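Reviewer 2 asked us to include a model.

Predict the structure of this chain.
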Amino acid sequence: MHAPTSLGEAFCQPRQFMEARDRVNKENSSNDKGSKVVWKGILISVQPRIRLLRSFDQRNHNYLGYALRVQGVADNGEREFSIGIGKSAQAKHQLRCGDIVSGQSLPVEDTQKEPVDYYKTSKLIIIERSITTQDINPPWHQVPPELEIYRQRGHRRLDPHTYEVKCQSCVWGCRLAVEMIIDQWNPGNKRYRFETFCYGPRSCSLYKAGATRKVPGRKGMTWEEPDWVDEQAVSHRGLEE
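Predicted model (structure tokens):
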């Protein structure tokens, strides 16, 4: 196998992919609701896929799987998009940045609760493995660890601009879908947003915390998450961990 010399070569569509895409598109034309999209492309990041539930000064994490950011073809258009896969799929395929992959996924029903565009992925195929060597300096692009490792490590808030510019491809970066319960006595009163976090080494030269996070509460109250929350979350790790 050889590394693609251009995006055009990387996105060339082998016969199997074209046949699968045409077959699914034909099926979708008769049943648009709940139909899967055939996609293919280069992985430009593999990061944890996490939902964060906030209720004023309380927070809880739901580790859903992994988020693949892809530059490729989906729904008959070439673009950048994101795919959600489960823990078992990642354990089986050991995906990493630079792999060329194809699959079939459903469009996300509620985009406020998911950090990806598509999920419920099936027929995942690795077309070509990345030849990228182990990174010494950030951002890091190795096969990401198991979700339990992320949970054990804990995270710090990450400046959104820093994430977009420097950390979007790093296995330790993460963009979380956040659900906020505004009133504990009225749990149906919710708001949604996205937040970025870093699970990486505390010594990372690219890291920038950014502004503190503010969480709305009942009767117009606001809780500002203090710095010690992040410090406590990663206090069990050394600077290089």
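The beta strands are 37-55, 58-74, 77-85, 100-107, 118-128, 156-157, 173-181, 190-198, 214-216, 222-224. The mean pLDDT is 89. We have added this to the supplementary material.
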